[in-house]
Amino acid sequence: MSTAKPLANVSILLLAGGRGQRMGGQDKGLLEWHGQPLIAHLHALTRPLTDDLIISCNRNAERYRAYADRVVEDAESDFPGPLAGIRAGLALARHPHLLVLPCDSPCLDRALLEELLSMAGEQPVILRQGEHWQPLFSLLPTNLSAAIEAAWQTGERSPQRLLRQLGAKALDCAVDDPRLANLNTPELLSNAAVSTPCSRIN
């Protein structure tokens, strides 16, 4: 009997390590949407793509372990931002590229991720909507880990600024692409909860 294999030689990092300030301090990845935690929706989408699924979280690690091969915490304990999670994920990644995704975007689909993966090369790839770059939807060569670490040590904390300095290419998406909806406020999560679940190309 044949065994299903991941479609790409890529590690995947799901970012769930923020303060959840827009959610009143709640752990966003564990908030329910259509009967499951947000992180479960991302897990279902990304699990077939990799044998190295990592979740960046700074609390509730035991709950997140059910959705990942490994979990990782920021080196600092004061929630220093998403670049800290990316930095930690790069240090663990086992494959030549790391696909980075936020935990609060359950409407992503397989087609968009495959388009990102098709652009894998020596430069970072970032989704872009109009003039707005979305560095939390990105594909990073893991050999950039040393450069990212060096920038971190000099005080850099902006993923967008750093990745663009490292020669990032853009994958352009429509400004209103529903697949990139961030359910990062109680209102957005509540409104989405009464709508039809996102359809995915799997």
Topology of this structure?
Layout: E1 10-16, E2 32-33, E3 36-37, H1 38-46, E4 53-57, H2 61-64, E5 70-72, H3 82-92, E6 97-102, H4 110-118, E7 125-129, E8 132-141, H5 145-153, H6 159-165, E9 169-173, H7 186-193
Parallel strand pairs: 1-4, 1-6, 4-5, 7-9
Antiparallel strand pairs: 2-3, 6-8, 7-8
Helix pairs in contact: 3-5
CATH-level-2 architecture: Alpha-Beta Complex
- What topology, given as strand order, has the largest sheet? 5-4-1-6-8-7-9
Count of discrete structural domains: 1
Strand content: 15-25%
Shape: globular
Largest sheet: 7 strands, mixed
| Uncertain stretches | 192-196
> What is the CATH superfamily?
Spore Coat Polysaccharide Biosynthesis Protein SpsA, Chain A
Averaged pLDDT: 86
Report how far apart the termini are: 22 Å
Q: SSE order, as H and E?
A: EEEHEHEHEHEEHHEH
The SS-based structural class is alpha/beta
Say how many strands there are. Answer: 9
Q: Specify the CATH class.
A: Alpha Beta
> How many H/I helices?
7
The name CATH uses for the topology is Spore Coat Polysaccharide Biosynthesis Protein SpsA, Chain A
> What's the gyration radius in Å?
16 Å
Assign a percent range to the helix content.
Answer: 25-40%
Notable features of this structure?
seven-stranded mixed β-sheet, two-stranded antiparallel sheet, 7 helices, globular, Spore Coat Polysaccharide Biosynthesis Protein SpsA, Chain A, 202 residues, alpha/beta
